[in-house]
């Protein structure tokens, strides 16, 4: 349903230009949960912002259900990392969730009902009348997820959604995403720098190289559902996949890595140019 | 704000029950804050009595004169005298009309300028120049342009007090948080929603700061314009009392304006606290 072809993006012009995306090809099928991992500064957010129509790519095509994307698509929701700035502090939790629904042509009553339902789905039925800043970080991110659910998008983008919460909350929210995806049959593209998270959540993990980012490799995740924070993570397959993804993220060659020769060459070139900068995981 | 479900608040209320000891505590707290006011008034009274100057009547004389002149009317008129009604009404009317007009102009124009970089680049130098012109210098012009009396006075007030509102609104609207803007775009908010639900509230703290400054300037300009060209109003009364050597009456006008300014500012802060309670409380919790 999502088709990204040879996407390139360069910030600025002339000698100061920074090429963030160096030709990305990516496909996401209907109902799939794809995780994109890459080292810090690899242009992961640039990729997400391009798909969301927040920036115009320098080159390449983005299609959703065979429709070329030039502006923000109408049925796309984003969960941002910075929940405290993505929820509006002057509105209650319910108003935040219901706000985008006006566009869906629902009347006030239907909007409230939809918001209540979505908040219920993320376990926040009791928080409708509260303000976002009265809630903990994890709960605020739940509200942001509820807003995305209520919006009923065909594609949900998540930009390091759990980057600013503690470990325990993070696990809860990961399981929430899996639940939401199952209950609402969502197609999700999730961006993260956390290798474990990408393997735990994804049907497929796409690894980006350092900037200018290309797809360094793709790994299908054939772990059984339902996934469990303890049991899944101790499966030999999980441990193996995590290592594979880790190698790809660090740009180390490995016989099992299904990257093409050209891409590996580009990667090697990149490393030699940028010196021995350690890639953050 | 209708319902506050903040657990902190609930706890806070429970922790401060209304006990006699507490009431005593808050009473002393108020006393320590305002004790200087009666002391200053007594000092003023004693000093002016000692000096026996015609130009500086004691505050008690001023208060008595104020009562005689303005607050000894019939109960049906809220104890206001005819002179009070004929002069306070027009003054307050001009003050509020001018201020509200300035708010409407300042906020509308300010958001337009703040949201359009091109417009801002074109208009900003003009704004900077216009606001640097001391408004009283333009009163002679306004006197010719508009009819003497209310139109000219309104022009003076609006022209002066629009700047703090405009500048603050531009500032508030220009620096809309990036994630707010992204969220609005991604979720396809309508133009009206963006204006009323995102841009206006996020700029509101700055807009209110500008409105508050403007309100006190509006009082000043109201008086200035009434001193220059007017047949009624508090400023006119002050001038008239001075010319008829009614010094306690003149001082009464000055005191009245002081009280008016104080009450206006306090009421505005009260309204601001209510409207922007989300802002204050959000900042306390993060």
TrEMBL record, chain A:
<dbReference type="InterPro" id="IPR003439">
    <property type="entry name" value="ABC_transporter-like_ATP-bd"/>
</dbReference>
<keyword id="KW-0813">Transport</keyword>
<dbReference type="Pfam" id="PF00005">
    <property type="entry name" value="ABC_tran"/>
</dbReference>
<protein>
    <submittedName>
        <fullName>ABC transporter</fullName>
    </submittedName>
</protein>
<keyword id="KW-0547">Nucleotide-binding</keyword>
<dbReference type="InterPro" id="IPR050166">
    <property type="entry name" value="ABC_transporter_ATP-bind"/>
</dbReference>
<keyword id="KW-0067">ATP-binding</keyword>
<feature type="compositionally biased region" description="Basic and acidic residues">
    <location>
        <begin position="270"/>
        <end position="281"/>
    </location>
</feature>
<feature type="region of interest" description="Disordered">
    <location>
        <begin position="250"/>
        <end position="281"/>
    </location>
</feature>
<dbReference type="InterPro" id="IPR003593">
    <property type="entry name" value="AAA+_ATPase"/>
</dbReference>
<feature type="domain" description="ABC transporter">
    <location>
        <begin position="2"/>
        <end position="235"/>
    </location>
</feature>
<dbReference type="InterPro" id="IPR027417">
    <property type="entry name" value="P-loop_NTPase"/>
</dbReference>
<dbReference type="InterPro" id="IPR017871">
    <property type="entry name" value="ABC_transporter-like_CS"/>
</dbReference>
<dbReference type="GO" id="GO:0005524">
    <property type="term" value="F:ATP binding"/>
</dbReference>
<dbReference type="GO" id="GO:0016887">
    <property type="term" value="F:ATP hydrolysis activity"/>
</dbReference>
<feature type="compositionally biased region" description="Acidic residues">
    <location>
        <begin position="260"/>
        <end position="269"/>
    </location>
</feature>
TrEMBL record, chain B:
<keyword id="KW-0472">Membrane</keyword>
<dbReference type="GO" id="GO:0055085">
    <property type="term" value="P:transmembrane transport"/>
</dbReference>
<keyword id="KW-0813">Transport</keyword>
<feature type="domain" description="ABC transmembrane type-1">
    <location>
        <begin position="88"/>
        <end position="272"/>
    </location>
</feature>
<keyword id="KW-1133">Transmembrane helix</keyword>
<keyword id="KW-0812">Transmembrane</keyword>
<feature type="transmembrane region" description="Helical">
    <location>
        <begin position="137"/>
        <end position="166"/>
    </location>
</feature>
<keyword id="KW-1003">Cell membrane</keyword>
<dbReference type="InterPro" id="IPR000515">
    <property type="entry name" value="MetI-like"/>
</dbReference>
<feature type="transmembrane region" description="Helical">
    <location>
        <begin position="215"/>
        <end position="238"/>
    </location>
</feature>
<dbReference type="Pfam" id="PF00528">
    <property type="entry name" value="BPD_transp_1"/>
</dbReference>
<dbReference type="GO" id="GO:0005886">
    <property type="term" value="C:plasma membrane"/>
</dbReference>
<feature type="transmembrane region" description="Helical">
    <location>
        <begin position="250"/>
        <end position="271"/>
    </location>
</feature>
<dbReference type="InterPro" id="IPR035906">
    <property type="entry name" value="MetI-like_sf"/>
</dbReference>
<protein>
    <submittedName>
        <fullName>Nitrate ABC transporter permease</fullName>
    </submittedName>
</protein>
<comment type="similarity">
    <text>Belongs to the binding-protein-dependent transport system permease family.</text>
</comment>
<feature type="transmembrane region" description="Helical">
    <location>
        <begin position="95"/>
        <end position="117"/>
    </location>
</feature>
